[in-house]
Amino acid sequence: DVQLQASGGGLVQAGGSLTLSCAVSGFNSDDYAIGWFRQASGKERERVLCIESSDGRTMYADSLKGRFITSINNAKNTVYLRMNNLKPEDTAVYYCVVVAAGKDYWGQGTQVTVSS
Q1: What pLDDT digit, counting tens, does each position of 36-59 carry?
Q2: Mean pLDDT of the chain
Q3: Do the beta carbons of residue 88 and residue 20 sit within 8 Å?
Q4: What Rg, from alpha-carbon coordinates, does the chain have?
Q5: Region 70-87: what's the mean pLDDT?
Q6: Cβ distance 9 to 111 under 8 Å?
Q7: Mean pLDDT value across residues 109-116
Q8: CA atoms of 39 and 101, how far apart (whole Å)
Q9: Dihedral of CA 75/58/33/89: which sign?
Q10: Which residues of 68-88 are buried (b: 16+ CB within 10 A; e: fewer)?
Q11: Which of these, 55, 52, 58, 81, lies nearest to 68 by C-alpha position?
Q12: Residues 6+ apart with CB under 8 A from 85
């Protein structure tokens, strides 16, 4: 079974940084997309970014470009989300997701809280 384990969330002051990790197991495909979504309380889930395995192209939400950076460690089957200059409006549960062959697999989410 495909499993995604997100971690690294926590409480941080505005202007601070956090790095989230998403460990992927049970997945074996060369054609996939991996990304991060977030959902703030009372709001719809929104996409943070997405990476295409075919060409490495990364698509960021316009409002987050320049502050959020992603990277993949293939040896560890882990994807990272580095979040810089965090703002209170970044407070949300962050989810990692893998999409392949028409299916999507979600991690359990990790809470990020940014205090002002």
Answers
A1: 999 999 999 999 998 887 777 888
A2: 91
A3: no
A4: 14
A5: 90
A6: yes
A7: 96
A8: 25
A9: positive
A10: bbbebeeeeebbbbebeebee
A11: 81
A12: 15, 17, 67
Give CA–CA dist 104/116, Å, rounded: 34
Residue pLDDT, tens place only, 10-39: 999 999 999 999 999 887 877 888 899 999
Cβ atoms of 74 and 3 closer than 8 Å: no
Nearest CA-CA partner of 104 in 20, 33, 49: 33
| All residues at 6 or more sequence positions from 11 whose CB lies less than 8 Å from its CB, including other chains | 113, 114, 115
Which pLDDT does position 51 carry in this prediction? 87
| C-alpha to C-alpha distance for 3 and 6, rounded to whole angstroms | 10
Assigned token pair, 92 = 């949300």
Tokens, residue 68: 């959020």
> What is the rounded CA–CA span in Å between residue 94 and residue 45?
9
Q: How far does the chain reach from its first CA to its final CA, in angstroms?
A: 40
